[in-house]
Amino acid sequence: MGDWHLVAPPLQSLLSRWAAFLSEVPESVVLATTLLPIALAIFSKRPIVLLGSILLALVSLCLLIAPANMAEVLATGFYLAGVTIALSGIIARRRAKALQVLQDEIDRLRRDVNALSYGEQRRFIKELKGQEGGSIVPGAGDERGNGSSRDAKPPIKKATRRRKPTNDAPRTK
């Protein structure tokens, strides 16, 4: 902290040259340069960003126009910046809450769809198992209107196993 006296003179010199440069710049260029952040904030399409840019541009313009009132302008600017930040936090929290509600709804709907899909799969498998011995083959002219009777396939027959001969019965070759 003792080296501060080495930094202060070059910094003061730089600020003096900057003030001299700004005093020579035409007012229309200063106004256009001050409004540039506002124009850029409009393209962001975010109200809080626009509000913050307007606030900072106004503080900057007020300091350039009336540097004698620097303390009042800075105090007002800092206060309004604090309010803007607080509003930004409230808006962000509400958006996050709304997104969480939507995410919960999506998760619930996904579970419902999965449950319905699982139930439909089980029903279809039961229907297939029930038709193994019957004459209705899905997609071949059944009651759902799928296919035509001309395209009907023969019913699926259950495979029968041959019985092994017992020792009691005579074997024939």
Structure overview:
With 173 residues, the protein is an all-alpha fold. Helix 2 (27-44) runs antiparallel to helix 3 and helix 3 (47-65) runs antiparallel to helix 4. The chain contains four helices and no strands. The protein has helices at residues 4-24, 27-44, 47-65, 70-131.
Secondary structure elements and pairings:
Elements: H1 4-24, H2 27-44, H3 47-65, H4 70-131
Helix pairs in contact: 2-3, 3-4
Low-confidence stretches: 140-152
Radius of gyration, taken over Cα atoms and rounded to an integer in Å: 41 Å
Helical content stands at 55-70%
Span between N and C termini? 113 Å
Q: What class do helices, strands and sheet pairing give?
A: mainly alpha
Average of per-residue pLDDT values: 79
Kindly estimate the percentage of residues that lie in beta strands according to DSSP: under 5%
Q: What is the strand tally?
A: 0
Main sheet: strands, sense, barrel = none
Shape: rod-shaped
Number of helices, where a helix is a run of at least 4 consecutive DSSP H or I residues? 4
Order of helices and strands: HHHH
